[in-house]
Amino acid sequence: MVSPSTKEVFIQGITHDGKTFRPSDWAERLAGVMSQFRPGGSRPGSHLSYSPWCIPTTLNGVKCVVVHRDLQNHEPMAWDFVINFARDNNLQVAEACLLPDAPPPKA
Questions:
Q1: InterPro entries from the entry (predicted)?
Q2: Other Cβ atoms within 10 Å of 18 Cβ, number
């Protein structure tokens, strides 16, 4: 399903049938569950922010969760959980690389 050389996987809120996945806050919920899995492990208060390895976002109007390959290296069971979540819910998965936002144009 996912190439081992890919650095990031995008789980998209669109099923293979083209339907929008519900509930509408699924990406935030999934990323919230994964918030404890982070570089250096869980710390007090870490549940208050998303893990850099599992980030909810919206791309072209579609809710997505960007999952970084480092999650698999450090927490294989957590990686399996998110990949199986996508598979079990028939969600589209794309292998890609999230690029940083472009700096604002200079005046």
A1: DUF3579 (IPR021969)
A2: 7
For the chain, which residues make up each domain, given as ranges?
Answer: 8-96
**Three-state SS for 20?**
strand
Tokens of 27: 């990406």
CATH number (3.40.640.10, 3.90.850.10, 3.40.50.720, 3.30.70.2340) of 8-96 reads 3.30.70.2340
**Single pTM value for the model:** 0.79
User: Which distant-in-sequence residues (6+ apart) come within 8 Å of 55 by Cβ?
Assistant: 31, 65, 66
- In terms of Cβ atoms closer than 10 Å to its own Cβ (0-12, 13-18, 19+), residue 82 is buried
pLDDT digits (tens, 9 = 90+) for 7-64: 899 999 999 999 999 999 999 999 999 998 888 766 666 556 899 999 999 999 999 9
